[in-house]
Amino acid sequence: MKIRKEVFNPEHESVGEVYNCIGCLQYYALKDYDQALMNLKKAIEIQEKTLPSDSLALAKTYNNLATTYGNVRKYDLASEYYKKSLKIQEALLPPEHPDIAGIYNNLGWLYLNKEDYAEALKFYQKSLEIKRKTLPPAHADLVRTENNIRDLQKELKK
User: Whole-model pTM?
Assistant: First the structure.
């Protein structure tokens, strides 16, 4: 980070990329959500100034911020940033791209945590539809989504 700030400037897009990476490390590996949020917000602040509004890099940072918000139960903010990410990805990627399936899966997880099971099922099914077309039948992501749907359907029958 220090080198990038010196070589470029503190507001350069590559500095935003580093903040995103640090934020990801903090929430995935360290479960330090407060620090992750701080770094991911800083990444977005820089990226929104330096990247086109339809940048895939920005979409990935929005997704990371959304996941972190979800982990601290700020579901409305998580939904907002997942949808921002999805909007960019749908505009730039083919409709059956794995990243789009990933966002649908994340939205399913989010609505599951909000106990909005019908919405969760809708997004899990969208994810599954893409995964069935693009992944081998025994792929871990595909199996995980099938299991999520099966568990959710059990919950809906209660």
Answer: 0.87
